[in-house]
Amino acid sequence: MKSKRSAKAQSKVATDGAREGVIQGAAWREAEEVTQPVHFVAPRLRANQSAAQGWAQIVQAAIRQVRANEAGARRGANVEYLHQWRVGLRRLRVMLGMARDPAWRDRLTPIRKRLGAFSDLLGEARNWDVFVLDTLKPLAATGTDPGARARAL
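Now predict its structure.
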């Protein structure tokens, strides 16, 4: 559904959102190389801040989680990187869907859809990892004994 706000009103929403901290470029900068998968770090929200500021802090924390785990997931260094990458993307997608302003929601919907499609692909990769690690690896460790293989499954 298209927003009925004028272009000027939409621009004001974007400007006000940026002023309140909705968009912070620092969250998108290259992530530092991490040596362990990174879990979500909940931001410290203040009682006197606006809902938009709190929303922005949570979005930024989700982006940091995504960026921090991306390189490790791409390298295949540890399956937990992939898992945390997916968790961060899911959290980001949910937060983008919680934008209260219709103009923001309209602008964020295509991003949410793309994140969802990408998350689906990562889900297939995660399913493969789980299958290999939880099924094939224990099965291979049983050797040729049919009884041991049956117990492993």
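The chain is about 65% helix and 0% strand.
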